[in-house]
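Example A, followed by Example B.
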Amino acid sequence: MLIENIGMLHIVAGAAVGFAIGVTGVGGGSLMTPLLLLFGYPPSVAIGTDLLYAALTKASGVIAHHRQKTIDWQVVALLSVGSLPAALLTRAALNRNEITAVGQGESILTFSLGVMLILTAAMLVLRNRLRESASKTRPNVIFSRLLANKSKATVIMGIILGVCVTLSSVGAGAFAAAILMTIYADTSSSKIVGTDIAHAVPLTFIAGLGYYFAGNVDLMLLLGLLIGSIPAIQLGSRVADHLPDRLLRGSLTLLLGGLGAGYLVSSVAI
C-alpha cells in the first residue's frame, strides 16, 4: 500500500538516476531535477526535493571516505564558511521576493538550472585540462591570481556554490570537483572526490531545508526516489568498471549540455 502511495514511477526514476550516479560518478542534481521537471513538477519543488535527495544519498559516501581518510576537512570547513551562509541568504532572498511561486520565479530557477547544467557539461570536458594547467602553473590559468591564496579561493568558491546550488540544485558534484582539482592540483583525485562529497552533504541539506520550510519539498516523492536509487547506486558502481568510461561521459556531457541549452531557452520564454 505504501509503495502504491509513493508511486512506482518515482521509484523507477530514482533507480535510473541512482544507476547513472553509480556508473558515472556525476551528482544526481544534474540528472534528477531535469527528470522531475519532465514529470511536471514546478521548478521550486523539483529543486527542493532534489536537494534533500542529494544530501541523503551522499551521506553514506561521507562515512566511506572518512574511513578511507580521503577527506580534507580543512578544505570542507573553508568551503562551508562561504557556501552555507550564501545558501541561507539566497533562500532568504527567494522567500522575501516570493519568486518561487510563478512567473519570474520559475524563470529565474529554470535559467539557473540551464546555466549550471551547461557549466557541468563543460567541466566534464575540461576538468583534466584545467588540473594539468594548474599543476604546471601556466600563466593562462583562469584562476591564476586567486590560486596564489588557496584559502581565499576556496571560500570564494564556496560562496559561488552556495548561490548556484540553492538556485538550481546543480553544482555540488562534478562542477565543484573540477574547480577543487584546479585549486588543489597537487591533491589526489580520491581526496578531491571525498572532500567534494563531504561538503556537498551540509550544503544540499541546508539549502533543501530552506525549500522544505517554504513548502517546496514533496516528501512522498523524496521517499520514492530514495527507495529506487540507493540499491541502484550500488549496482551502478559495481558495473562501472565493465563499461566504456569515455563513451558514458561523452553521452552524459551531450545530454547535460542539451538540457541546459533547452532550459535557457525556455526560461526566456516564461
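Example B, a separate protein, is given below in the same form.
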Amino acid sequence: MTSTKRVVVTGATGLIGAKLCAQLIAKGYSVVVFSRDLQKARHTVPGAAEYVAWSPAETGDWAKAIDGAYGVVNLAGASLFGKRWSAEYKREIIASREVGTRGLVNAMAAAQQKPELLVNMSAVGFYGPHGAELLDESAPAGNDFLANVCKVWEREAARAEQLGVRTVIFRSGVVLSAAEHAGLPINLSKMSLDRPGLVLDTEAGAFPLLLLPFYFFTGGPVLPGTQYLSWIHVDDTVGLLIKALEDPQARGPLNATAPDPQTNKAIAATIGNVMGRPSWLPVPGFAMHLLLGEMADMITTGQRVLPKKAQELGYQFKYAQSEQAIRQLLRK
C-alpha cells in the first residue's frame, strides 16, 4: 500500500525513529524529519521529503511544517539510558518531553489545517512498580519518578485530543533491539566504566544491560528475579506505530508490549539458553544501584503489562515469545 500523506517524525534518528521512517518512506509516505542535528538526520534517515531544524520548545519556525500534515509521531525525549540520573539530568528527562510535546500541540492549535492524528510516545513506566498482577490500559498511574515523567508527557499530548486531533498514547515496554558491533549484538565500543557509572550506547536501549553479564559468563537474574519485564521487539514497536497511524480505531493509551511478559529470572534463563551460557549467577539489586544509581529501578522493579488494545485492534505480533525475539536479535 502506498500513500502520499505527510507525516512529521520527531526523534527520527533514534533506535525506533530511524526504523519507523525507513518503513514509512518505503510505504510511500512523505516523511518530514524534525531533528536537532540535520547532518545526522540526513545520514540516518535517507530519503525523507524534508529535514527541519527542531529542538523541544513551545514555539519555533518549525511549526509551519505541521500545518497540513496528516500526522505527527513524537518519539523525542532525553534518553533514559547512558547517563546516571542526577537531579539535573532528571529535570532534562522531564523537560525534553514536556516542553517538546507542548510545542508540537501548540503548533497544531495554531495550524490552519490541523493534523488528523498525533502518536505520542510514553512508557509502561506510567503504571509504576507492580508485582505479578496483570495490567492493561485501564490500570491507574503510579507515583515514582518514571510514572510522573509519563504523566507529564501524556498530559501535554492529551491537549491534542481537545483540538479534535486523534491522539494515541504509545506506552512502550522495554524495546529489544540489537546494536551490532564486531559481530556482537552489543556495541562494546561505546561502553566504558567510569566513576559516575556505566556509559552505554543509548541507541541500543535496555538490551545491552541485559546481555552484558552473559558475555562474561556471569549472567543470571537481577534479584529479586520475580519482577516482570514487559518487553517488545523493535520490529513490533514499529509495526504498532504504523498500526496507530493507519487504523482510525486506535485512540488513547495503547500498550506497546509483547503478549508474553516474563519475570527477570525467566528472561535470564532464556538468554542463557539461547547464548549457551550460564544463567544462574544472581546479581544483587544493590549492586545494580551502586553501578547505575536510580536508573537501576528500571531493572530491579517492573510491571506485568498486556497489549489488550493492540490485540483488540487485530495487531499480529511478529515476535510474541521472548525466546523467538532473543534468537532473532542474537541471530541464533
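On Example B: The longest helix spans residues 87-110.
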